[in-house]
Amino acid sequence: MEVMDLLRERKSVRTFLDKKIDDDVKDLLYEAAFEAPTAGCQMFYSIIEVKDERKKEVLAKACDSQMWLTKAPLVLVFVADNRRWNDLYRAYGLKPREPRLGDLWLALSDANIAAENMVIAAESLGLGSCYIGDVIERHEIVKDLLELPDEVVPACMLVIGYPDAKAKDRSKPRRFAKGYIVHQDAYHIQSAADHKKYYEGHFIKTDKEIDYKDTLKKFMEFKYESDFSKEMSRSARLYFAPFLKDE
Q: What kind of fold does domain 3-171 have according to CATH?
């Protein structure tokens, strides 16, 4: 498939065939991740492949009890790794400073870019994938389970497998129009009328009348105002704390 076709057709997959991913295919996925753009060619990330079934269950429960992810043949946690380089420096007798917020920001970008490279490679290989952002939640559980030092922070989790018929048939959610997302030269604060135009134009038109305000209110309560969103912020604050020490 052409790259643009892959991007258009790729969607989150949450139901998988009971089919193992061969090691040679898995190696291609890792290769794709490693070829991603990276700050200073430093690859400020590590990937934890979770094979232990008990750990998968604990992760699934910590991620808002999404137990379906335990059925995925491949479960990967991409972590922003500000530990490896400093350990390398110290191995040669050097004395690096402690990592700070800017270092973490770069590492989070590196980790997520590498994950997206893997997602597209997976699609090209007939595999389906799903990002699990909830791995940022439950700081104490995830940190302990994956034995993360203070300098290592979860960026995202990917579950990968061969999609079943249900996953293949599911329609991909529509994306917002270009005019709502792309700005020229500076950030443009849009008017209330513009917001409504783009939001309402986002829906596929049917004979059924849509109460746009009610639909948006329910979405806000389900996502932005949810308990899991508040928990994510609590855990993020704990993960970020070691990087906020004075220089």
A: NADH Oxidase (3.40.109)
- For residue 219, how many C-alpha atoms fall within 13 Å in the half-sphere facing its CB? 7
Q: What is the pLDDT of residue 112?
A: 98
Burial of 125 (0-12, 13-18, 19+ CB in 10 A): middle
CB pairs under 8 A, 24+ apart, for 214-217? none
Residue ranges per structural domain of the chain: 3-171, 178-210
Q: Residue 167 has what pLDDT?
A: 92
CB-count burial class (<10 Å; 0-12, 13-18, 19+) for 228: middle
| 42-68 confidence digits (pLDDT tens) | 999 999 999 999 999 999 999 999 999
* Contact assessment for residue 157 and residue 76, using Cβ atoms and an 8 Å cutoff: yes
Dihedral class, residue 147 (left if φ above 0, else alpha if ψ from -120 to 50, else beta) = left
* pLDDT of the residue at 186: 98
Rounded Cα gap, residues 25 and 130, in angstroms: 17
Question: pTM (2 decimals)?
Answer: 0.94
